[in-house]
Specification:
By secondary structure, the chain is mostly helical. The chain has 14 helices and 9 strands. The chain has helices at about 5-40, 60-70, 85-100, 140-150, 155-165, 165-190, 190-200, 205-210, 220-225, 225-240, 250-255, 265-290, 320-345, 355-380, and strands at about 110, 115, 125, 130, 215, 220, 300, 305, 315. β5 (about 215) and β6 form a beta hairpin.
């Protein structure tokens, strides 16, 4: 199979089959049904598929109806808006979040030969070669790539706020820019200690290193070696997605919808989809950096090793089964942290804007710096 066709299949499966599907379903399953359960309501349960009761109580028919309505709705634009920038902004919000998935690994590389596991927990492919089938693009600085490409969405929010020629939109754009830039500093610094420990920016290599066992039994997951960094990264990541309790750029009670106020039809849909895709991205990054990504504890290419690998697995598994378990592990972990973000969204009240800035600059940033200094000292001693 030619390489371009393999790349195309990976893009279709990962970006459209997983990211877009999950981000779209979050509009009803996360924002409506999950919030309804938390608030002791039923949620959407009226729309039907062709008059039947199929999936009626799940809210899925509402999701389909909203999608059709959004496509057919007439796009509008304020009279004095900057037309070019107004139309450009939704793309700058949505596309960076999708491009960032190019470096996200859903499983280790495929071995076309025989897998052997060394006592150092390294998988060796004998009689074949490694094939990159479960990651769109194998980047040796994948973490840096993800941060660089997703940062572009800041420009989308700022441009949308200014180009709309609306006071609500402008205030929302300013809030969004200040908030995202503020928390990006903490987001990056919180991972500096993790990079110091693993010694790489390659996301796949980071996951492989988390397969190592401390003391012969404890997986060296990021949350084990950097618990403070996990706490800081998760909070800063939620602030980056601009979802409650950090949804000050939109804050419906004050700014209508913030920088999205003047958008309608699929432009509005693209902006919303970009925010949901960012939520899924944060879930995937937390899973990869702190919870082993595609790793299943004690599972290696030839099966389960419950002690130091000695050539023979304690529970041998077919290689195809191992791959399916790894992909499933990555998806389950990602969806769990997406669910957790929505649980926090519908549980905690919204902060005031000064509280958001105080949390970012006076609490999380010093905490991430202290964590980095302590990590550096410990690494130097050991």
């Amino acid at each position: 199979m030619p390489e371009w066709l393999i790349s195309l299949i990976k893009i279709l499966v990962i970006v459209f089959g997983f990211v877009m599907a999950v981000a779209s379903l979050l509009t009803v399953l996360g924002d409506r049904k999950q919030s309804a359960k938390i608030q002791n309501r039923v949620g959407p349960n009226r729309a039907r598929l062709f008059g039947t009761n199929i999936l009626k109580d799940t809210g899925i028919p509402h999701f389909i109806a909203d999608g059709i309505k959004m496509v057919l709705k007439e796009p509008t634009m304020p009279a004095n808006a900057n037309k070019f920038l107004f139309l450009l902004a939704p793309g700058l919000v949505l596309l960076p979040g999708l491009f960032g998935w190019a470096a996200i690994p859903f499983a280790d590389q495929w071995c076309s030969g025989q897998i052997m596991v060394s006592p150092e927990y390294q998988e060796v492919c004998t009689g074949g070669e490694w094939k990159n089938y479960f990651q769109i693009m194998d980047v040796n600085a994948g973490l840096l790539y993800v941060f660089a490409i997703t940062s572009v969405s800041i420009y989308g929010a700022a441009i949308a706020g200014w180009a709309s020629n609306s006071k609500f939109s402008l205030l929302g754009g300013l809030r969004s820019t200040a908030q995202m830039i503020s928390y990006e500093v903490t987001l990056g610094l919180s991972l500096a200690g993790l990079i110091l420990i693993y010694g790489t920016l390659d996301l796949n290599e980071m996951v492989r290193m988390q397969g190592t066992q401390l003391g012969g039994w404890l997986p060296m997951w990021g949350v084990v070696v950097q618990p403070v960094a996990f706490f800081v990264f998760f909070l800063a990541g939620m602030a980056e997605t601009k979802r409650a309790p950090f949804d000050l750029p939109e804050s419906e009670s004050e700014l209508v919808a913030g920088y999205i106020t003047e958008y309608s039809s699929m432009s509005f849909g693209a902006m919303q989809l970009g925010e949901y895709a960012a939520t899924v991205m944060i879930g995937a990054l937390v899973a990869i950096l702190f919870f082993g990504g595609w790793q299943v504890p004690y599972l290696y290419g030839d099966g389960f090793h419950f002690g130091t690998p000695n050539g023979t697995p304690d529970l041998a598994l077919n290689y195809y089964v191992v791959i399916l378990l790894r992909i499933g592990s990555m998806i389950v972990k990602t969806l769990f942290f997406v669910w957790l973000q929505f649980m926090m969204r519908w549980t905690l009240p919204r902060f005031r804007y000064d509280q958001v800035m105080t949390l970012g600059w006076k609490i999380l940033l010093p905490l991430s710096l202290a964590n980095l200094v302590i990590t550096a000292i410990v690494a130097a001693i050991l």
